[in-house]
Specification:
single chain, 168 residues, mainly alpha, Arc Repressor Mutant, subunit A, 2 domains, three-stranded antiparallel beta sheet, 7 helices, 64% helix, 6% strand, globular
Amino acid sequence: MAQPKGRSGNNDPVKKESATLDNRQELYTIIQRYNDTIMEKLTIDPRSDTPIYQQIVDQIRYMITTGALQPGDQLPTVRTVAQETRINFNTVSRAYRILDQDGIISTQQGRGTYITEAAIENESIAMKAEVFIDLTRELIKKGKQLGFTLDEIMRMIQEERTNERTQE
């Protein structure tokens, strides 16, 4: 008995469909692996004076500034971030909305949320300075929590700077 036309050789629609599913699965796996990497880098401190939504915004901006996130990179969904970090869905949504309004990300319904090309331009030197100032404030705050005065913190920074120069 002859095989039905289209069911043999390379024209087999079942094989084509299977190959398409394999490609989709491979793409999903890459995106999932990447999302896991972002989730590992996202650190939320519920005791911080900085609101949680702002911590998310700041960390995503920082990842863009340092090159950990590039234009075209896909972010995890709001739901995924909320579930993985155990943060309220609305809080994560607020962070994404702020990033979207600032032109840092673009959400395409049915496709996902991506870092925009404009993100790199937006996260230029001014953003790097802002990130550095935030880090400096956090360093001073933590130093004070440890019992150091501002003068002691500045002295330690100066000593570290001197040590670094001698290593060059």
